[in-house]
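hi! just following up on the protien thing from before. the input was this:
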Amino acid sequence: MKRIIIFSILVSLLQVLHAQRYEMSFQLPGATDSILYLGQHYRDQFITLDSAVVGKGNTYRFAGKHKYETGMYALYPKEAKKALLEFTIDGSQRFSIRTNSDFEVLDPKTDISGSAANQAMYTYINRFNQARKRSKELEQLKKSSDPQLKENAEKEMEALNEEMIVFENDQMKENHQYRFFQLLDMFKGPDVPDEVEDKPVYYRTHYWDGVDLTDHSLVRTPDLYNKMNVYFFGILYHADFDTICRYADMVLHKIENDTLMLRYFMDHIMPRYYRSTKNIGWDATWCYLVRQYYLTGKCAWAPQSEITNKRQTCEFLEKSLIGARGAELYMADTNQSPNPQDWISSHRFPTRYVILWFWDPDCHHCQTQTPELKHLYDSLCNAGNKLFEVYAVGYDADIDKWKKYVRQYQLNWVNVGGTNVNIDYQEAYNVHGTPTMIILNEERRIIMNKVLPTKSILPFLKRYGELHPLK
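and the predicted 3d structure came back as:
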């Protein structure tokens, strides 16, 4: 009878174990959260898949009946932007990890049981962490005034670099079957041959080589998000509009027929380009991407209301993009004449350049930058080198306050303001705050639509003049 009972218990246990397809436990001695979540990255957020309440010994146990896909996963508290622990589910779905109190995944004391993939990953990361730490120490020693100490540090650094190259190659060969190492190889970036003359162009052109953008599982890794971020807002950060669009197309054309992957990119980069008020050419980039992708039907996920909104916004922004002809304003000066014949044009000046300066006497930045612009303007006038005219539009509805400021600070450029104006300049030049600066060339086309620091105005105009000599 006892043997039958024991047999029944064993059968029940086996059924329970079979029902639980995954069982992962994480012992975190210093954890303070009562609940931790298991999930995967999606851009700068997490997709939550499971949760666990803290148990004995600060252990969080996750168990369930389904099977997780191979990939990178994270352990994190609620509403966290950063993971406490990164790990991989690859092969075994029954394992345990114990790490130190501050949750550094690079901690060599991390204990892993039941997962060869995680063991290999942590071995790799720990070794590189040790090498990175030693490298920083050697960099300090290389600055030593002691010649011998400096020489020894340089030799050790060279040996360490060679050692780590061999280590990485060996690890990649031994563990190529694991997802972590496959991702490592995929996202390592291009090697630039020594014989290449224009290395930055080569790097930008080959930046996505090796990345399989048809692999949808990449959207659930931090690697794709980081690479996308570095590409658009690092490598292309200071590039001009044409360059940004050319290289953006290079990668986006690869995925333009893949709705999931295209949306992954567009939902992240479009708001960044649209919200930028400082980066030259980013507004034009946003408009270009709208016309090339949203208005051509490639962004199938976007509802018609969003498409319509983007079209209208694009048409509005294009009026004030670099290269567009600036709308000619006619405005009353401080005399505030209601007669349009007395109004002053923003375009009819003998100077090659015109700076449209939209400002407000109560604006803090205006109070700082307007005197600086005046100093530059006056110094050029006094030197007989009036390179530009300033067409200063008083943005404040309080006419008396504006006129008082003009007199008090002797703003002797062209001062206009009030409601006596031929068009809505806010719409014409996308003016939604102060100060706003627009620089027009001899054809009164926009060559700058961002506020330049006063010290940068002359270098900018000099550079523009060199690139665009008068015919």
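Residues 310 and 360 are 30 Å apart (CA to CA).
The chain has four domains: 2-112, 123-174, 198-320, 330-467.
cheers
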